[in-house]
Amino acid sequence: MPLVKHSVCALDCPDACSVLVTVEDGRATRLRGNPDHPVTRGFLCAKVARYLEREYSPERLLHPLRRTGKKGEGQFARISWDEALDQIATRLRAAGEEFGPEAVLPYSYAGTMGYLNGQGMDRRFFHRFGASRLDRTICSAAGVAGQTLAMGVRYSTPPEQFRDAKLILAWGANILGTNVHLWPFIVEARRNGARFYTIDPRLNRTGRLSDKHFFVNPGSDAALAFGLMHVIFAEGLEDADYIARHTDGIDELRARVASYTPEATERLTGIPRHEIAALAREYATTRPAAIRLNYGIQRSERGGLAAAAVSLLPVITGQWRYAGGGMQLSTSQAFRLNVPQLAREDLQLRSPLGRPARVVNMSQLAEALLDLEHPPVKALVVYNSNPAAIAPDQNRVLQGLAREDLFTVVLEQFLTDTARHADIVLPATTFLEHTDLYFAYGHYYLQLARPVVPAPGEARPNVEVFRQLARRMGFDDPCFADTEDDMIRTLLASEHPFVRGITLEQLEREHSVRLRVGEPFLPFAEGGFEASGGRANLRLPDYEPPVESRLGDAALRTRFPLEMISPKNDDSMNSTFGNRPDTDMQTAVLEMHAADAAPRGIADGDLVRAFNQRGATVFTAKVNGSLQPGVVAAPAVRWPSRSQHGRSANALVAPRLTDMGGGPVFYSCLVQVEKCGD
Ligand SMILES: Nc1nc2c(c(=O)[nH]1)N[C@H]1C(S)=C(S)[C@@H](COP(=O)(O)OP(=O)(O)OC[C@H]3O[C@@H](n4cnc5c(=O)[nH]c(N)nc54)[C@H](O)[C@@H]3O)O[C@H]1N2
Ligand SMILES: Nc1nc2c(c(=O)[nH]1)N[C@H]1C(S)=C(S)[C@@H](COP(=O)(O)OP(=O)(O)OC[C@H]3O[C@@H](n4cnc5c(=O)[nH]c(N)nc54)[C@H](O)[C@@H]3O)O[C@H]1N2
Ligand code: SF4
Ligand SMILES: [Mo]
Fold first, then answer.
1. How many other CB atoms are there within 10 angstroms of residue 4's CB atom?
2. Which of 1, 36, 363, 652 shows the smallest number of beta carbons within 10 Å?
3. In the chain, where are the structural domains located?
4. Nearest to 96 by CA among 350, 352, 346, 348
5. In CATH, 65-137+335-510 is 3.40.50.740
6. Per-residue model confidence (pLDDT) at position 579
C-alpha cells in the first residue's frame, strides 16, 4: 500500500513548500504540493516536481571518498567513514596547532534551509574549535543592511495579503521564476481589478505577463525611488500624518530627493520622465499598493541604498496602514526562534582562542584563500554550498581551491566542481532523508520534516557528521550529544510572542504552524519601526552610479562597454541542479539587444565570448527584445566544468563589495562581447 508522508522543500527559495511524498516499498514515487497548505496550495515548481530524478540519480555520492588525482580532476578512491573522519580530525587539529584555529574556515550557505543541517551542529563545532567565522553575505547582506538602516526591523507583508492589493509592483523580483507561490495571490488581486507592474532591466517571464514593464538601468533603483519620492513630495501626495507619527528625518529626506526631478531621474535610470511622474502618482494614490521587492535589486554596488530607498516608499505614503499594502522583501526575521542557543556562540570562549575568531566574508573567498596571512587559511570545510560555481571572481576562487597546501573537505550530494577540489568528500543526505525544522523567507509558517525514505549508501546528515567530528576532537560539551529533537526543542524555547507556545508535539501533528503574527499581519500599521528611536529613519546617503555601469568609470567602459547581469535561472536552484544535462551550455545563453549584436557581427545562435579584465566565458548569443541596448544577461550559475570554456558567468564578476552589508556585486559587471572565431 502506498503511504503519503509529509515533507518540506529545503531548497533556498522563499516559498518553502509543504510537500506530500508518496512512498511505496520504501521508495518515493511521487512528490506533490500539499493542497492544504495556505501558500503551497497544491503545486510545486517545475524544477522540484522532478526532484526524484535527483534523489535516485546514479550520480548521487554514496560513500566517503579520498582524492587520488590532482585537485579538480575528479579522481577519488572509496574510504570508510572512520578513515575519513579520523583523517579530517587529524588534519584540522594539525592546522590548528601549527597556525592557530582560525586557519580553519567553514564555508556554507543555503543548500538546505533547515536550521539543524544549515546552522546547527556545524556552528557549535566551529565555535568550539575556534575556526574563522564566515560572514554569510552571498545573497541578501546588502538588502538586510539597507532595510535595517531605513526601518530597523524587516517584517513583510504576508503573501496571502497581496490578494487585497490594488496595485502591485514587482521590483527586481522574477515572481514566476523564483517565487511562484506568490503568483496565485497576484492573479486573484488582478481579477479584482489590481494592476501589476514590473521594474527590472530584463523583461523576464514575469514582466511579459505584467500590465506594464519599466526597463531600469542596472544598479539605479535608489535613484528611481528618490525620483518617485521627489514627485510624491512635490505634489503633496505623501501621508503627512503617518510621517509625523512614525518617522524621523523628513526634512533631510525632502532635501535629499530635491534634485531627483523626473528629468534627472530619467538620466540615471533610463525610464522616461513622464513614466516616472505617472508611476509616482499612481503608487501614492492607489490604496492599498504592495511592493514585492526581491534581492535582485541589491546585487549591485548600490544595492544597500536601493533596498533602503525603496523601503521608504510605503512609509512616506502610509501604505503600511492597510492589509494588501506595504512591502515584502523577506519574512525571515519574524522567525524569532532561539537561534543563539542552537548555534552556541558562547562556545568560542571555550576554544583555544578563548575569544570570538576573525570574520571572513564569503563573497571574498578568493582573497581569503589567496591573500590571508595571519594566519593563512589551511583547511576549508564546505557544506550546503558550491563556491566554485556561485562565488564572484571564479578564476581566482578556482586558483585558491587548487592550492596543494590547502586541506579541503566537502559534504555533498553530488560531485560538484567544489567537491572535485576536495581532499575528502563526504556523502550528504537530502531533505527527504533527514529531520529538520524550516523557516521561510516568503511566508510565515514554521515547518517540521521527518525522513520519508532511507538514505542511500552511506550518506549522512550534516548534523551527524559534525557530531562525530566533535567526538573525535574530544569536545565533551553536552550539546554535542544533542539529538535532532533536543535541538528543535532548544530552538522552540523562545519567549518571543511570534513563536511562544509552539511545541514539537504541535509541529509533529500539524507539520506546518503559522507564527503568531496575527491575521491580517499589519506590522507597521501603527508604526513599530526600530530604526531611529522607534521610528523609520528617513536620513539616507546620496546615490552615485556603480563604478561598473554606463555612468561609472569611463576608462573601464571604453574597454568593456556592456553591463552584464546574471539573474536566476528558471530551471535551476542556484547551482543545485547543475548536473542535469539540460542545464549545460546549450541553455547558457547570453541575451543581448540587436543594437549591440549587429555592430559586433553577432547573429542569434552564434557562439560568443564575453570577457573583461577578470576572465572570459563562452555563451550562445540570443538576440532578443528582453533587454535595452547596453545590457546583456547571462544565466546566474552553471557548473564551470559543464561550460564550453570551463568557466561560467562568475568568472566575469568582480570581488568588489556592495555599499552596505559587504555583499557581492553580481549585477554590476562591465564586459565586452565578441563573436567566437570559426
Ligand atoms: N528558479 C529559481 N528560483 C530561485 C533561485 C534560482 O536560482 N532559480 N534562487 C533562489 C535564491 S538563492 C534567491 S536569493 C531568490 C532570488 O529571487 P529574485 O531576487 O527574484 O531573483 P534574481 O534573479 O536574483 O533577481 C530578480 C530580478 O532582478 C533583476 N535585476 C537585476 N539587476 C537589477 C537591478 O539593478 N534593478 C532591478 N530592479 N532589478 C534587477 C533580474 O533581472 C531578475 O529578474 O530566488 C530563489 N529562487
Ligand atoms: N552570477 C551570479 N552568482 C550568484 C547569484 C546570481 O544571481 N548570479 N546568486 C547568488 C545567491 S542569491 C546565492 S543564495 C548563492 C547560492 O549559492 P549556494 O548556497 O552555494 O547554492 P547552490 O549552488 O544551490 O549550492 C548548494 C549546494 O548544497 C548542496 N546541498 C543541499 N542540501 C544539502 C545538505 O543537506 N547537506 C549538504 N552537505 N549539502 C547539501 C547541494 O547539492 C548544492 O550543491 O549563489 C550566488 N551566486
Ligand atoms: S523550490 Fe521553491 S517553489 Fe519549488 S518546491 Fe521548493 S519551495 Fe516550492
Ligand atoms: Mo540567494
1. 12
2. 1
3. 3-55, 65-137+335-510, 142-329+521-537, 554-675
4. 352
5. yes
6. 86
Residue 246 burial (CB < 10 Å; 0-12/13-18/19+)? buried
108 neighbors 328 (Cβ within 8 angstroms): no
Residue 496, number of CB atoms within 10 A of its CB: 13
Residues of the chain falling short of pLDDT 70: 583-586, 678
Look at residue 583 in the predicted model and tell me its pLDDT: 64
pTM here? 0.98
Atom of ligand 3 nearest to the CA of 9: 6
The span from the CA of 153 to the CA of 144, in Å, is 9
What element of type H or E holds 447? strand 445-449
Q: How many angstroms is it from 294 CA to the middle of ligand 4?
A: 10
Rounded to whole angstroms, the Cα distance separating 633 from 637 reads 12
- CATH of the domain spanning 554-675: 2.40.40.20
**142-329+521-537 CATH fold:** Dimethylsulfoxide Reductase; domain 2 (3.40.228)
Alpha carbon of 15 to ligand 3 centroid (Å) = 6
Q: What is the pLDDT of residue 678?
A: 65
Q: Does domain 3-55 have CATH number 2.20.25.90?
A: yes
Mutating to test ligand 2, I would choose from 441, 574, 638, 669 the residue with most ligand atoms within 8 A of its C-beta, which is 574
Q: Are 449 and 436 in contact (CB under 8 A)?
A: yes
**Which H/E stretch holds residue 199?**
strand 195-199
Return the C-alpha cell found at 264.
534627472
Which helix (H) or strand (E) segment is 126 a member of?
A: helix 121-129
Quote the ligand 4 centre to 318 CA distance (angstroms).
Answer: 29
